[in-house]
Amino acid sequence: MEFQAVILAGGKGSRMTDLTSRCPKALLPLGPRPLIWYPLVFLYKNGFKDCIIVLPANHKTEIVAALNSFDDVQIKWKDVVVQDDGSGTADALRHVIHSCDVKVDLLVVSCDLLTNVSLEQLIALHYAGNSKLSALFTPFPTNLRTTDVPGPKSKKKLDRDFLGMDPITNRMLFMASEADFDDDVLTFNKYIFAHSSRFVIHSNLLDSHIYIVSRSLNEIWTKEGTYNSFKGEVVPLLTKRQFQNKTTDKSRDADPIEMSSSTGKMGFVRESDYGCYAHLISKGLCLRINNLMTYCYATRHMARLFPVLAPSNAIFAPIEFDTLQRGDGTTISTDCLIAKNVHLGSKTTVKSSVIGQDCKVGSEVKLTNCIVMDKATIKDGCNLQGCVVGRDVTVDHSCHLKDCVISADQVQEIGRASCRERV
């Protein structure tokens, strides 16, 4: 393919630090595989044979070890390391272009993406419009609205995206995220209405963070430190530049309204300049695991999602019976996921729960609708409902916890009773 695929895996997972304080986001367990495995499969299914993976310097060794262990995805990869200095996605892409001397268009994917969509129509749109930026959007998953998230109750922002576009050409005229607004008012610059007689607003979309970026935009990345966030800064910049005056050579950063008042003309620049396009998919799975809500949803539904996402040669056993040790009288519901090397004590009940590798669960324990991450220990007599138990956590004897989030490395004292807490 005439694209360089790039997976952005340098993020900290800042919106789910309860899970990522000890584990890099790219290695968060999601069913039988770490998170970064899924975008690799996605690229492979779409015909890519190689890719560049942006890795954080402080977690490079462990992520590379995980990548080298994948034997069911035949895709070559090269890593590019970024420092933990507050740099953003635009900085990471700039570093990729410079260090790898990229001369073709970029196909950019986030490491937190779960999707089985085909890129064929997005690529066709990119070529047909001679696009400088092409982005893929999907309807916001309706099931997320009813997903119960453990921890303190708060008003949920659903990370929806608002998209304004020409419904005939698919030209992207406006994009904003719900998280960027403190109230319910959505405002638009007047130059959008001055240019387009066809303007449709979509208010219930998810930006998949799949972008095709033209190689002709490489001058943007040559200005060190100018842009930090690709979605927050570069995308609005390119969208605005579509409205440059056709007949003047004024600065690219000049305000388009001022240009209009000086010439009396305003419209799109030539199609070869700063055209931005959006493709809306109507079928297929597309979900970003970038907060606790989406992580809980995907983990609890992984038995259904994994066959849709995985290549045909991937093997998935919802319960690893070969390495499972369980005592007498222990029951496990059929909708559970239990990883390798798990020990369950006697008379323990596990319902609708996910248990990670190397976990130890004592006797007479009740786990209902819980996510227990790797190497956690839950001692005798505990009752946990709707909880997320972080990596290396110890829950001591006879604790009763409901809808709680327990961060990595924590120890819960004997007999603790909590509801809707983050501990």
Can you give me a brief rundown of this structure?
The chain is of the alpha/beta class.
Report on the structure:
The chain is globular, with a radius of gyration of 24 Å. The strands form six sheets. Strands 1, 4, 5, 6, 8, 9, 10, 11 and 12 form a nine-stranded mixed sheet that branches. The chain has a six-stranded parallel sheet with strand order 14-17-20-23-26-29, with no helix packed on it. A six-stranded parallel sheet has the order 15-18-21-24-27-30, with no helix packed on it. The protein is α/β, with parallel strands linked by helices. The chain has ten helices and 30 strands. Strand 9 and strand 10 form a beta hairpin. 21% of the residues lie in helices and 26% in strands.
Distance between the termini: 48 Å
**Mean pLDDT over the residues:** 86
Q: Low-confidence parts, pLDDT < 50 over ≥5 residues?
A: 247-272
Q: How many strands in all?
A: 30
Biggest sheet architecture: 9 strands, mixed
Class based on secondary structure composition and strand pairing: alpha/beta
Overall outline: globular
Number of helices: 10
- Fraction of residues in helices? 10-25%
% residues in beta strands: 25-35%
Rg over alpha carbons = 24 Å
